[in-house]
Amino acid sequence: MVKDQSFEIPQQLRELAEKNVEQASAAYGQFMNAMTQAMNIWWSALPPNEMTSGFKAVQDRAVRFAKQNADAGFALASSLANAKGIQDVLDLQTHYAQSQMHTYALQAQELGRLMADTVKTKT
């Protein structure tokens, strides 16, 4: 008779993974802040006009989406680090994939609309 053998991820390994996720998230946050500051400096060097302000809005939205998507990825990584078994991992990944596909579709629609509006008002 075969027993149901479930595999549980050791607590120490989960704690180490959670710490690594926190460090990676903090480093990513610092990188995004530096990149945002650099882009703002670059945009401020351009002469202000309707075209640049429209594309600046598109860029700002894209950066906001990138941050949201990264946050979702780090939240998944944190959840995975705390998963106790393989079924938890599969459930978390499935939910994340479904949620992010919906999010990506909405983000693409919004960026497309912003780009169309920007180009339409400039021509």
Structural class: mainly alpha
Question: Low-confidence parts, pLDDT < 50 over ≥5 residues?
Answer: none
Describe the oligomeric state of these chains in a short phrase: single chain
Following the backbone from N to C, one meets helices and strands in this order, namely: HHH
Strand content: under 5%
Shape verdict: elongated
Q: How many H/I helices?
A: 3
Number of strands: 0
Number of domains: 1
Major β-sheet annotation: none
Radius of gyration: 21 Å
Mean pLDDT across residues? 87
- End-to-end Cα distance, whole Å, is 75 Å
- What is the percent of helical residues? over 70%
Please give a structural write-up.
The longest helix has 37 residues. The protein has one domain. With 123 residues, the chain is mainly α. The model has no long low-confidence stretch (mean pLDDT 87). It has three helices and no strands. 1% of the residues are buried. Helix 1 packs antiparallel against helix 2. The protein is elongated.
Element layout with pairings:
Layout: H1 11-45, H2 50-81, H3 86-122
Summarize the structure.
With 123 residues, the chain is mostly helical.
Keywords:
85% helix; mainly alpha; 123 residues
